[in-house]
Amino acid sequence: MSYAPRSFGDVEVVPLRDAVGPMSGPLRSPPGAILTGGSPADWAGLPADTWELHFRCYLLRGRTGRPVLVDTGIGGTDSPASNWAPVPGALVAELTRAGVAPADVGTVVFTHLHSDHAAGAVTEGVPAFPNARHVIQRAEIDWIEGGGPNAILERVLRPLTGLIDAVDGDAGVLPGVRVRHTPGHTPGHQVVEVGPLTLTGDVVLHPVQLRDPAIRYAHDRDPEQAAATRAELLRAVRAAGGTIGTAHFAEPFTDLTDRPAG
Question: Under CATH, what is the fold of the domain 6-24+53-255?
Answer without folding.
Answer: Metallo-beta-lactamase; Chain A (3.60.15)
